[in-house]
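Hi Y.,

Following your request, here is the sequence exactly as I used it, all 257 residues.
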Amino acid sequence: MTYKNFNSNYWDNIAVSMSSHFRDQTIAYYHRYEYINLLKKWGGNIRIKNILVTDLFNDAFRQDEFLSWLSKVNKKVIGIDISGVIVTRARQYNPNLKYYIVCDVRRLPFKIHFFDLIISPSTLDHFSRKDLCKSLIELNSILSRDGTLIVTLHNKHNLFLYFILMKYFKSVPFPIECYSIKEIKELLISNGFRIADSASIVHLLFPRTFLIILTRLKKNKVIYNFVREHIIFLSKMGRLVTKYFTGKFIAVKAHKV
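Below is the corresponding structure, written out as tokens. Let me know if you'd prefer a different format.
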């Protein structure tokens, strides 16, 4: 299947075929924790901004979603997704969010300069390079002149993630492209953005399946404390010089040129 076939019907079928996004809620919670911390750090005064979230896949499965937190802070958040099934599920789980729209991030229906903050949580790494650039041009056009784009993409520097999970085992049921920090910055700059900051989030020292086995045994106090301390330690790894080699995602904060 080529990238051009990854349309709304494809993502509808993916959503229908999956019962959950994570096999264990502890790991899902860690993903959510990392995203919320990132938004608190880079989002500025979230309460007063027009905000766009560029996909609702996480929200459709609820486990690692951050939209419920965001919509409590700001009632003007708009969530979009190419899949009608995903939008319907996300709305069911979070009815407090007023604005759900089925649309393609490569062809957005919004006015220019409308949004003060755009959050793209691993949306664009499901596209070809050409469509990723098309999406960035669209996002740039609807971002206000002093607005902020927060984008996360799968991390090519994490060799375990890139070579073993993505290339060898094909561990996910949908397409994912991994990017280096240099590639991401070059793509953003060439499509009308300037870089304000960068980070790496969601650090897993052990293979995920190992943690899943441990968390299923967390009624054992020793194992539970080990998992809890491990998660706390992981959240601090983004401060280290090795952050790009251990993170699942590269995150970049950018502004319109």
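The first strand starts at residue 51 and ends at 53.

Thanks again,
Q.
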